[in-house]
Specification:
The structure holds 2 protein chains of 2 kinds.
Chain A: E1 5-7, E2 10-14, E3 19-24, E4 31-37, E5 43-50, E6 55-58, E7 61-66, E8 71-76, E9 85-92, E10 101-103, E11 107-112
Chain B: E1 5-7, E2 10-13, E3 19-24, E4 31-37, E5 43-50, E6 53-57, E7 65-68, E8 75-79, E9 88-95, E10 105-106, E11 110-114
Parallel strand pairs in B: 2-11
Antiparallel strand pairs in B: 1-3, 3-8, 4-5, 4-9, 5-6, 7-8, 9-10, 9-11
Classes of the chains: A mainly beta, B mainly beta.
């Protein structure tokens, strides 16, 4: 299976702390994307990292990619209560232009004020 | 800001009944998807659609499921004879291009409850 698997399944931290979520996948990828889902809502794209990139930043988000270990991490710095959500990594199953994104099981992040 | 809209937000139906879930993708997008999420579980791919035909479908998308884009704006998912295990959130998504670098834009979902 191509799908990413996140860990931990659940993470609870205090506001202001950093949150790190990890994702592992099984086969080669073109890129890896992270999405966020508030409870009962749709998924929102956060960031995409290409297979030839090792690190990418967007605001308080930092994503790393290690293709040799087939893993990625998402770091949220200085977390806020509003960051409480589930976070999913997603990969495509092949190099084709329209191969669908396959999502992992997600990490449920709770940020306590 | 353009968004993907889905209706209904919640539908309750009896087992064996037909259900149609509707989506209006972002207007200049060309690639359309349906995903589902059983409560508390992962988001699962159902089907992708481009140029008025199915591009790819998963094992979940059996003969009971169908999709169509009847009028150039709506994108529908039909379940012919619902089963209890079809209860889930169904998400429509679209993207502008076929490149793997394209992000998916998701609707807020349609919650289907089969009794």
């Amino acid at each position: 299976s191509q799908q990413g698997e996140e860990d931990p399944q659940a993470l609870s931290i205090q506001e202001g702390e950093n949150a790190t979520m990890n994702c592992s996948y099984k086969t080669s990828i073109n890129n890896l994307q992270w999405y966020r889902q508030n409870s009962g809502r749709g998924l929102v794209h956060l960031i995409l990292i290409r297979s030839n990139e090792r690190e990418k930043h967007s605001g308080r988000l930092r994503v790393t990619l290690d293709t040799s270990k087939k893993s990625s991490s998402l770091l949220i710095t200085a977390s806020r209560a509003a960051d409480t959500a589930s976070y999913f990594c997603a990969t495509t199953r092949g190099p084709g232009g329209n191969t669908p994104l396959v999502f992992g099981k997600g990490t449920r992040l709770s940020v306590i004020a | 800001e353009p968004e993907v809209t889905q209706t209904p937000s919640h539908q309750v139906t009896q087992m064996g009944q037909e259900v149609i879930l509707r989506c209006v993708p972002i207007s200049n997008h060309l690639y359309f998807y349906w995903y589902r999420q059983i409560l508390g579980q992962k988001v699962e791919f159902l089907v992708s659609f481009y140029n008025n035909e199915i591009s790819e479908k998963s094992e979940i998308f059996d003969d009971q499921f169908s999709v169509e884009r009847p009028d150039g704006s709506n994108f529908t998912l039909k379940i012919r004879s619902t089963k209890l295990e079809d209860s889930a959130m169904y998400f429509c998504a679209s993207k502008v291009s076929g490149a793997n670098t394209g992000e998916l834009f998701f609707g807020e979902g349609s919650r289907l409850t089969v009794l």
